[in-house]
What does this fold into?
Amino acid sequence: MNAILQVRDLHTQFDTLDGVVRAVDGVSFELERGKVLGIVGESGSGKSVTAMTVMGLTRDVNARFQGSVRYKGTDLLTVRDEEMQAYRGAEIGMIFQDPMTSLNPVYRIGEQIVEAIQAHEQVDKRGAKRRSVELLKQVGIPNPESRVDDFPHQFSGGMRQRAMIAIALACNPDILIADEPTTALDVTIQAQIIELVDHLKDDFNSAVIMITHDLGVVADIADEIVVMYAGRVVERATSRELFYDPQHPYTWGLLGSIPRLDRPRPERLHSITGAPPSLINLPQGCKFRPRCPHAFEKCMEEPRLEQRVEAPGHLDRCWLDVETKRARRDETISGGHTEAA
It folds into this structure.
């Protein structure tokens, strides 16, 4: 495997007045050129902090890091802040969650794309603007020659997201990180944005990290999926393996929350009971144990992320044996279990 990005045992902690927040707790994954990695989990599971640590955006006097983030052989955790400027945008681009707050409301869309280009390339403003028009055309903005001079408030939500994608791709980065790129968009626009990212990945020969809380968003686009809970990876597998043979009860809960057209419509949509734990005071043993309907005595011990099924590279963090999982998961996904043990 020729991985362009290797994250190994990454820990990100923040010292606060209430205690140490273990936002990312031992996360590992690899990313190959031309591939899409989906990172899935509820809010607070550590998805965005993982991505922002890769980008060097979580550095603060109260932040502590362990592990390694190797991009083309260079450990980005050891790179100085001044040197990281050369990586952000040019090597690794990022689409942030909310385009309305990520775009500067007092600058025209074209000016913001030009700024991103000139920050990394020796090109005059006229040449950068021509490139901006080309980028807007590539991401599907109609009449890009005139819309390049519009302000963000003149764009719809879906168009603002496309403009953010254009900025992220302005310098043809090797890695594109899309952090919840379909948040607050209707399902039709969501599908268009996902399809656009997939096409642009091929056009620019980039690798993509797609961060979302919805497994349905990455179902068709991701080659591999990492499921995170409480700052940890609880399951990791190829997209096909994860959907056809999911091994962790938390993954079952996420799958059960997706409406299904091939089953009778339930009276109410299934949801995972309870709330994610505090990252300052994590529960003993398995972190999902207080919300898991299948928890038993062994779950008071912390399970390791291991391969327990025949599929190579399919890892999960659960004490249940494979036969028991396969016997119980259909009932869980269909909403049969609703109360935590």
